[in-house]
Amino acid sequence: MENFWFYTKLGLEHVLDLAAYDHILFLMALVIPFSLRMWKKILTLVTVFTITHCISLALSVYKVVEVDVAWIEFLIPVTILLTALFNLWDSLKEGSVLSFQLQAVATGFFGLIHGFGFSNYFKMLMAGEDEKFNPLLGFATGIEISQIIVITAVLAVAAILEMGLKLPRKYFVIGTTSIVILITIPMIIDTWPG
Fold first, then answer.
1. What is the 3-state secondary structure (H, E, C) of 45-73?
2. What total of structural domains would you count in the chain?
3. Is Membrane set as a keyword in this record (predicted)?
4. What one-character DSSP code corresponds to residue 94?
5. Helix crossing, 2-16 with 22-31: angle to 10°?
6. Rounded to the nearest 10 degrees, what angle do helices 69-91 and 169-191 cross at?
7. 163: domain range?
8. Could you tell me the pTM of the whole model?
9. pLDDT in tens, 38-48
């Protein structure tokens, strides 16, 4: 059990590490278009993302699937950019059920990519260790706790700006999404594997 909590702490720190903010940016981009009233949509997207990144994390750790680390490091900021661009496109028109379904499918695919990214870090931590299940479960738990923290923070900032400062939702979405895009473009350039 001690091992579990140790790896939970590492998973939590890995996502919340401001020096490695790619996962925070993705979560921001994912929930920026939503308010607390849309909690079912947020829960759906976060659940899809969680399931898929846990699947690819486990597949990679147990060496069922192996991927090129350089391409994963490049694709992670691409997932952030595509999610942010979708937000801009969707905020300029009325959202539809179809666009949410498309977003859910894309989020699942992006979750697979992020899971492979998590596995790179986890495998470095586990070098030489034989027993992987409890550490993997702890690490994944830490990731999930950190995701809840990030999502709650984004929703709280949105609520403060909208209710407290009376900022229209559309301006919040366009403004914050634009910031995410500006931060992400240099990440894509820096991680290009070619």
1. HHHHHHHHHHHHHHHHHCCCCCCCHHHHH
2. 1
3. yes
4. -
5. 70
6. 160
7. 2-191
8. 0.91
9. 889 999 999 99
